[in-house]
Amino acid sequence: MILIIDDDRAVCLSLELLLKRAGYEVTSVNTQADAIDYVRGNSPQLVLMDMNFSRSTSGDEGLILLRQVKLFRPAVPVILMTAWGSIPLAVQGIQAGASDFITKPWNNQLLLQRISTLLDIAGREDEGESAVDSDGFDRSFIIGNSPELIAVLDTIKRVAKTDASVLIMGENGTGKERIAQALHVNSRRKSKPFVKVNLGGVSHSLFESEMFGHKKGAFTGATADREGRFSVADKGTIFLDEIGDLDMSCQVKLLRVLQEHTFEVLGESTPRKVDIRVVCATNADLAQMVRDRTFREDLFYRINLITVTLPPLRERRSDIPLLVRYFADEICRLNDMPPVKIAKTAMSYLSKLPYPGNIRELKNLVERTLLVGGADELKASHFERQYAQQSSELPGKMMSLNGLTLDEIEKRTIVDALEKYNNNLSQVAQALGITRQSLYRRMEKYHIGL
Fold it and tell me: What is the pLDDT of residues 304-361, one digit of tens each?
């Protein structure tokens, strides 16, 4: 059960609809007193808590309530919410025991990702499982023991405690974000913020506002101050995903921050210092992009002091049974389902599939089969039916990929999806699992017109 604490009934209703559609059980209260009464007698899986319950915008009420909730339920993760976000307030919240901090209005997809991550971590801790290796390295639920994965983790172990910039390469769905998290939680900055930014979803016009923040009145529509991602990440780690999608003009602005560790908030003339570690990720061939003059060479050498390349799932097939078991247990727990057995024939079948979508594709297949199968033991035939259905839902031209480069596969995927959905960009972006802004960038990159 997820508990929502907010004096605004409209906010509660909006969050309840979002979370129920995602499959969670939800309840809400509107006052501090009702919140305390609830946690006295019940132990929610997670709490979403507003920070202001009156006209005050200081957040003091939320901090007091947070400490009271933690007295009764110290192990329950709490996400703080406020429309008046600031770095000092976020720091106070984390110090008081909060697990995360979001500002209103929130991004639905990012909020659901944060909730899923916190519930996963809390569930593993409840089961007494540890993600810490015998040498003290926290794997952060990176599943697998294949030689290819161990080689990557050995590199991560050596550089985690340094401030060296790291570039994580690999195909979509290989787990680049998990590796970035492992770098952070094993670093000296682990108690500080870990800020994730999908650069493929940041539009060119909003780049400076999103990354560096702005002051009220800095431009048309700037009705309030906004903290940028670099401010939020100060003293911590910033993870710049899909950096290969970054526009050349934005690359210049990013390079200055990485070189000088200073930036200017829009509407201010005084540079601000920032102390961060930078971890980047991409599925693009940045070296080729440098040769093609679509990615700055100086930025490339700034971000790749250490380069880690994640192997695709087809090159670490010995990890597939471990991943299948992990995903099955996780899905059963989150959906309140009894544990299921997976037949050896099923494991053998799953270990032989091509997985162009890598770990993400495997998880999707396991989840679909579990939810549709309804059997105590899943056999190869259960997975075969779902895999055939999943493959039939893809455009026909996508089925022959032999001899194509990764860029050619991505371009063909977009073209086929545009054809399938009659150029409806919203449907195409949703089907491909990316934002409209990211879709625009890829269409521009591959010179795809409508």
Answer: 889 999 999 999 999 999 999 989 988 888 888 888 889 989 999 999 898 888 998 9
Res. 128 pLDDT band, cuts 50 70 90: very low
Under 8 Å between Cβ of 98 and 66: yes
Per the model's pLDDT, the better-predicted residue between 299 and 88 turns out to be 299
Amino acid code (one letter) for 413 = T
pLDDT tens across 253-269, in order?
Answer: 999 899 888 988 888 88
**Beta-carbon neighbour count of residue 42 at 10 Å?**
12
- Amino acid symbol at 21: R
